[in-house]
Amino acid sequence: MKRLGLVVLGVALLAGLVGVSPSFSQGQPSPLGIVIQPSEFQAFIQVSRPVCAVGQTIEIQYRANEAPYFAYILDIQGNNVTRLLPNRFEPNNQINDTNWHTLPGIATYRLVCSPPFGPEYVQIIASTERIPQLEGGSGDFPLLGSNPQAVGQQIQQAIQAIVPTAKVATAVANLQVVSSQPQPPTCPPGYVGTPPNCVPGGQPPTQPPSGFTVQQVITPGSPQFAQMSAQIMAKLQAAGLAQALAQAQATQSPKARTPRRSAPHPSKSTSNRFRTPISSLGCSSSPRTRRSPDTPSPQGST
Question: Where is this region: Disordered (predicted)?
Answer without folding.
Answer: 182-210, 247-302
